[in-house]
Amino acid sequence: MFKLSYQAFIMLSFASVYILIKIISIRKSLKTKLSKLIFTTYVPTAVILLLIVSAYPYFAVPSGYADLKNYKGLDGIKYLNEIKPSDYQAIGWINKNIKNQPVILEAQGDSYTDYGRVSANTGLPTVLGWTVHEWLWRGSYDIPAARFDDIKNLYETADINLAKKIISKYNIKYVYIGGLEEDKYKINEISESKFEKLGNLVYLNKKTRIYKLD
C-alpha cells in the first residue's frame, strides 16, 4: 500500500496546482462576504503549504544522492562489493555458473538488512526471505514462521536424516554459507560435514562456501 502513495502524491501535486488556479480564476465571480472570506483565507494558506512542500527536493536529492557528486552507476550490486566483498564475488560466481532457478538456502533475517542478498541478487528462490515482507505478501505470519526452525535445523543439525527431510521438503539444491550464516547459526565442522556427505563443495572463497546437493 505504501508504494501506491508515491504515485498518489504525484497525482495530488498536479491536482493541487489545478485546484488552486481554478479557485483563483473564479475570484471575480464571488459575491457574498462569506465566499470572499473563504477565498482570502484559503488561497494564501494553500500557497504557503505548496511552497513548504516544494522545498522537499532541496533536502531529498542531497540526502539520497549525496549532492549528485558521487556517481554510483547502474550496477545495483556494486554496494555489496564495498561492504561484503566475499558475498559479492560468490554472487558473481552463482550468476555465471548456476543455470535455471534451483532453490538455494541462505540465512533468513529481517527487512531492510543484508539478509536475502543471495536470492535478491541472483534471482534464485530461497526458503525464506525478509520475514515481514513474506508475511505481508501472504496475509499470515504463520506461513513464514513455520520455516524458521527448518532453516536453523538444516544449518545446525548433524542428523543426516533430518537434513534430508528438510532438503526434500523445500527441494533445496544449493546451500550457501557466508558471514551472515555463521553469525546467525551455530555452524561447526560436524554440522557442516553433512553437506559434504549429501553433495559436493562447488565454491570456496575464504570463508564463503557453496554446496551443491545430490
Could you characterize the architecture of this molecule?
A 4-stranded mixed β-sheet has the order 1-2-4-3, sandwiched between helices. The protein is 61% helix and 10% strand. With 214 residues, it is an alpha+beta fold. The protein contains 11 helices and 4 strands. The chain folds into 2 domains: 67 residues; 136 residues, Rossmann fold, CATH 3.40.50.
Concise overview:
It contains eleven helices and four strands, in the order αααααβααααβααββ.
Could you list the spans in which at least 5 consecutive residues all have pLDDT below 50? none
Radius of gyration based on Cα positions: 27 Å
Share of helical residues:
55-70%
CATH class of the largest domain: Alpha Beta
* Tally of individual helices: 11
- CATH fold topology of the largest domain: Rossmann fold
Descriptive terms for the model:
214 residues, alpha+beta, Rossmann fold, 2 domains, 4-stranded mixed sheet, 11 helices, 61% helix
Task: Map the helices and strands.
Blueprint: H1 2-25, H2 33-54, H3 56-65, H4 78-83, H5 85-97, E1 103-105, H6 117-122, H7 131-138, H8 142-156, H9 160-170, E2 172-177, H10 179-184, H11 189-198, E3 199-205, E4 208-213
Parallel strand pairs: 1-2
Antiparallel strand pairs: 2-4, 3-4
Helix pairs in contact: 1-2, 7-8, 8-9
